[in-house]
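Predict the holo structure. Ligand: fructose -6-phosphate.
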Amino acid sequence: MCGIVGYVGSEQAAPILLEGLSKLEYRGYDSAGVAVYDGETGRLTVRKSKGRLKVLSDMLDGGASVAGRIGVGHTRWATHGAPSDVNSHPQLSRSGRIAVVHNGIIENYAELKAYLQEQGIPFTSETDTEVVAQLIEHFYEGDLLQAVGRCLRRIEGAYALGIVCADAPDEIVAVRKDSPLILGYGEGCSFLASDVTAILRHTRRVSYLDDGEAAVLTRDGIQCYNHLMQPIEKEICHVDWEVDAAEKGGYEHFMFKEIMEQPEALRRCVLPRIRNGEVVLEDFRLDGEYLRSVRKLYIIACGSSYHVGMLGKYSLERILRLPVEVSLASEFRYMDPIVDEGTLAIVISQSGETLDTLAAMREAKRLGAKTLSIVNVVGSSIARESDQVIYTWAGPEIAVATTKAFTTQLAVVTLLGLYLARRLGTMEETEYKSVLEELLALPEKMEAVLANRDGLQYYASQYFNHDSVFFIGRNIDYAMGMEGSLKLKEISYIHSEAYASGELKHGTISLIEDGTLVVALCTYHKLFDKAMSNIVEVKARGGDVLALTTEGKREELGKTANGVFAIPEAHPLLLPCLGTVPLQLFAYYVALMRGCDIDKPRNLAKSVTVE
Ligand code: F6R
C-alpha cells in the first residue's frame, strides 16, 4: 500500500505534492511526508508527520512554507515500524542528502541493515525503507542512477521508489518491482505517482513502468531504462478519466458518491459491449480452438473481488456447464493447485495491483494456465500481465470499500459468460436474448433501488447500535451476503458474519437470541421456500430479521420479517448486481450513524500491495 508522488518542474513542488497525496490517501493514511529540494539554498527539506495528510498540510501551510521545484511525497500504511514521525517517509540517508519514498516491502532489509551497521552507518527509524536510502548513499559515487542500480541488485522484495538527491538537484529517480508506478509527462514538468488520479489535474499523458525498469525525471522529460540500465522508449498512453471523477462533487463521502454512480458505471461498462443483439468483447485474443480446449475455470481474487468470484461460479457454471473453482489469491499461492493447460484462470481485481492476486496469477501462468483478468485500473500490473484483460470501466474508485467496481465486475462476469457461451454453444438462444435484455435494463432498475434508499436509512437507524449482525442466504444470496457482511464490518466496525442458511443449524444458530439482527437474503425465487424456513427458525429464537427480496415476494415476507427491502424482479444471473446495492447502502448508513470514517476505515487501504 502507501502512496507516492513526485514532481519536477518550474512550479513550487510542495503544494503539488500535497495535492497529489490527497488523491492517494486511500492507499494509506497513518502518516505523510514530503522532501523538497530548493535550488536557491541548495537544501533538501524533509517534513513529515504521523497522522492524516491534513496534519502535514497544516504544518506546511498548504505547501507554502517549503520552497523548491523538485520533490517527492508519501502517504503511509505502516508495515515496518509503527506509525510515527520518525518512521514516516521520506526516509533519509545518513548525510541527509538522499531522500526516498517507498511503497512495498524490502524483504531482506534486516540483513542489509546489519551489513550497513557493521560499516558504522547509524539508523534512526525502524523502517525497511531507510535501508534503501542508506544503501544508495553507500554506493553513491556521483551518479545517482548508477547508485540506485547497485542498490537494486542487493534488495529483494516489492518496491516502487521515488528518490531525490541534493547532489543531483535536477532529477528524480524512480524504479519499480511488483508495486505500481506511473510516469506523467507535462509541459516543462514531469511526475511520478502510485496512481494516475494523483496527477490527473496536471497531465493525461502517462506511461507505466514495468518490473525492473527505472526512470530519470527532469523538467525537460523522462528517460526510462531497462533492468540493465540501458535506455529504452516507453509507450505514452492517454488517460481519459474525468478529473471530476476523482473528486467528491458535493457528496459527503466518496463511498456514497460511488454507490450513486453505479447505474452510470454500468452503462459505461455494458452498453458499448452489446451490439446488434450480441456481446462484443473487442481485442479478445483467446480463440475458439483454445476456448474449446478449456476444461476448467479457476477464479482467483481477494476480498470483495473474491465475492464476485463466488457469484461468478454460480453464473458461469450455469451458463457454460464447465466446472468453476474459486480461490482466495492468498490461499491459491501456497496450496499446490490443480492447474494446467486446460485451465483458464480468471483473475479479478479492481486495482489490478493486489500483490496476492498478482502473484497467484503468475503462479497459474507458470502451471500452464492462460489468464484472463477483470480489472478497473487501466494499465495496472494484472491488466498488463494477463493474457487477456477485460476492463470494468467503472471510473476511479476512491473510497476504500468497493461499490461500483464490484457491481461492474459482476456485469463483466455476465458479459464474459454470455460471450463464451456463444462461442461454445452452451446457451439456448431465448435464454441468451433474455439475459442480454435484462443486462440492458439493469442501470434503470438500479436507479429504482437507489431512489428507494430512505427505507434503508430507516432500518439503519433502528439497528446501527447492534454489536453483531448475521447475513444468511442460499446460493447467490449466500455469496451476496458475504459481500454485505464485509461491507458492514469494514466501514462500521460491527462484527458480522455471513452464513449459508442451511448451515445455521450446524452451529451458528446457537448465537441467535432475543434481538440478534439477521439480514436474510431471499432474492433467488427457486430457493425462496427454503429461505423462509430459515427465517422462521431465526424468529423462533427471538432474532430480528431484515429481509431482502424482490418486489413479488415483498408482501409474503412482510408477514414474518421485522423489515423488508425489495428490489425489482430480474433474471437470477443479474439479481446479485441489484441486490448488493441495498447492502452497500445499509452499511453506509449504519457507519454514518456510528460516526465512522467511512472513506478511510481504520487499518485498511485500498490497494493492498503487500502480502
Ligand atoms: C472491500 C474491498 C477489498 C478488495 C480487496 C481486493 O470493500 O474493496 O476487499 O476487494 O482488497 O482488491 P482488488 O479488487 O483491488 O484486488
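The CA atoms of residues 170 and 465 lie 55 Å apart. Residues 302-305, 349-351, 354, 357, 401-402, 486, 490, 608 surround fructose -6-phosphate (CB under 6 Å).
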